[in-house]
Write a structure and sequence with these properties.
- The complex is a heterodimer of chains A (268) and B (290).
- By secondary structure, chain A is mainly alpha-helical.
- Chain A has ten helices and no strands.
- In chain A, 63% of the residues lie in helices and 0% in strands.
- The termini of chain B are far apart.
- The chains are: A mainly alpha (268), B mainly alpha (290).
Chain lengths: 268, 290
């Protein structure tokens, strides 16, 4: 029935965007949640040091599916920002709004398309990595002892994937956001340059005569000039409420001042 | 309370519409503005143009769509959230329908942000409503037979998504999904795309075949009409026609659906045409080279 859905609520996000260093794995290792009660770790404590590498592999593998989200999000943000800012001569407002929007769109798409496959990948990579470390061959017939071990491995892989999927997905979203911002900066570079040039030359941004404008009631027409903070609120909301992360005011500053040197993972 | 002008048929003043559009920008007034605009959308013929050309409206609609993503998996979307996002979708549908905004809508990739909703499986009401409304946006895009729209859709996963809903959706969702498939097939590039590989064709034929069998148990004239149109169009392709000779369900060839189609002359005509197309002996004309 319709009321059934109201009883379950979505879990609150645990992480802030600022918990992650853009485009690197450096934050991941220390943030992984490993329950030391997992049975296999009591028998093979050294396996705990073999968690990070399969997780890194699984995240790297996700870059393939992320490419599609990047393409969709950057195209959408570019088209919409171009039209919304066509008569706005303030390149900072243009650039910041475009970054905020693309962060929101790309993060949302990654959350909804990449999370479930990533969880499966993490589980399967941990499993096969543990098999390798313990020298268990999946093809040959197993001893009773080995069968117990594989069951424990399966259970451990499940539990590690479940307790770390949000963390890993947030990292993947964070890396996607960095890349999306690089792309949108490039796509809008000429728009930004044009606005800078207009200002140094002391002239107005020339706005193409838009016949549609005349059909719009006065209060929703685009007027020449920068936007008020009230108008820009929607573009600020994009960065305040990034899907999958805790809402946070400092995010805005993070994206605007973000390190512009290229994150290496995307250039491989 | 109910606004006084929502029930009658007097035209809505453009000033009032413009106020609601500006109210979309502020989070405190947005939910009410979405509802009012979505209610009035039939009465304002150029609402799509106003929404597209005003600052921030399309950005707001995309914001609303993506804001419910965290409630899709696991499925926790409430009725209120569903209503709110469906009002935003109704306005997107308005933009998708209008000839002046349709191309811009596609170029901005907006339809792709709705696909995660088509991919949901929960059968609760908030999700049924969300799927149906999202399908409505795609349905509005394909309604006017623009090749540009079909070419865009063929670069996306809309065919498998529609086929899945055709198998498992509510009757209304099935009808819209089948309509979308029918419109894709109606376009030459859509027909060629689906008949290009045996896998694609057989997936479509299998889903249509199952739907026909379902129709024997729970007939729906509207849905059956779209199914028959899909088959008829497939029969325009020589290879598909060959394959259909052996896989068209028998109940379409006998009188099983005579009662359902009793008052629907055009569908009866299409069904006879389909059977005629399949009865014609294989010819060696140039069409077969396709």
């Amino acid at each position: 029935s319709a009321t059934a859905t109201t009883t379950a609520t979505a879990p609150e996000p645990q992480y802030r965007l600022s918990d992650f260093k853009p485009s690197t794995f450096q934050s991941l290792n220390s943030m992984l949640k490993i329950n030391s009660n997992i049975t296999i770790f009591r028998l093979h404590p050294n396996l705990k040091t073999h968690i990070y590498s399969p997780i890194e592999m699984a995240i790297n593998e996700s870059f393939q599916t992320v490419q599609r989200s990047l393409k969709v999000a950057t195209t959408a943000a570019e088209q919409i920002v171009r039209k919304d800012f066509v008569s706005n001569p303030d390149e900072q407002q243009l650039r910041t709004s475009a970054r905020n929007m693309v962060a929101y769109l790309s993060s949302g798409l990654v959350l909804i398309t990449a999370r479930a496959p990533l969880q499966e990948q993490i589980q399967s990579y941990i499993k096969s990595h543990f098999y390798t470390v313990l020298g268990i061959s999946q093809t040959s017939t197993m001893s009773a002892n080995e069968q117990t071990t594989t069951e424990m491995i399966q259970q451990a892989a499940n539990e590690i994937a479940t307790s770390n999927i949000e963390l890993c997905c947030c990292l993947l979203q964070r890396m996607t956001i960095s890349r999306a911002i690089q792309i949108i900066d490039q796509r809008l570079a000429s728009e930004i340059e044009l606005r800078q040039r207009c200002r140094t030359e002391g002239r107005q941004l020339s706005v193409a005569n838009n016949t549609n404008e005349e059909r719009l009631p006065e209060q929703i027409r685009l007027h020449y000039g920068p936007f008020s903070s009230h108008q820009l609120a929607i573009y600020e909301d994009f960065v305040h409420f990034i899907p999958g992360f805790k809402p946070n005011d400092s995010e805005k500053r993070d994206l605007v001042t973000m390190d512009e040197s290229a994150p290496s993972v995307w250039d491989r | 309370g109910q606004p006084s002008n929502s029930a009658n048929n007097t035209p809505v003043s453009r000033e009032r519409i413009a106020v609601w559009i500006t109210e979309l920008l502020s989070s405190s007034t947005r939910e009410a503005a979405l509802m009012e605009l979505s209610r009035k959308r039939e009465k304002v013929s150029d609402l799509a143009v106003l929404l597209w050309n005003s600052f921030g409206s399309v950005a707001v609609l995309l914001y609303e769509v993506i804001s419910v993503y965290p409630y899709i998996t696991p499925p926790t979307l409430t009725a209120q959230q569903s209503n709110r996002v469906c009002n935003a979708l109704a306005l997107l549908q308005c933009i998708a329908s209008h000839p002046e905004t349709r191309t811009l809508f596609i170029q901005a990739n907006v339809p792709l942000f709705l696909y995660p909703f088509l991919n949901t499986k929960s059968s609760t009401r908030p999700f049924e409503y969300l799927r149906l409304t999202s399908l409505g946006v795609i349905g509005a895009l394909v309604k006017t037979d623009e090749t540009e729209v079909i070419n865009f859709l063929l670069t996306t996963e809309i065919i498998p998504l529609s086929l899945r809903i055709m198998q498992s959706g509510s009757e209304l969702s099935k009808t819209v999904a089948t309509f979308i498939l029918q419109k894709i097939l109606a376009d030459d590039s859509g027909l060629n795309y689906i008949c290009q590989t045996f896998d694609r064709f057989s997936h479509v034929a299998m889903v249509l075949g199952r739907m026909v069998l379902q129709q024997q148990r729970e007939p729906s004239g509207r849905l059956l009409k779209h199914i028959i149109r899909c088959y008829l169009r497939l029969s325009d392709n020589p290879r598909a026609r060959e394959a259909l000779r052996s896989c068209l369900p028998d109940c379409l060839k006998d009188h099983t659906f005579d009662i359902v189609l009793k008052d629907d002359q055009s569908t009866k005509k299409w069904l006879s045409q389909l059977i005629l197309n399949l009865e014609a002996p294989p010819t060696n004309n140039s069409q077969q080279q396709q």
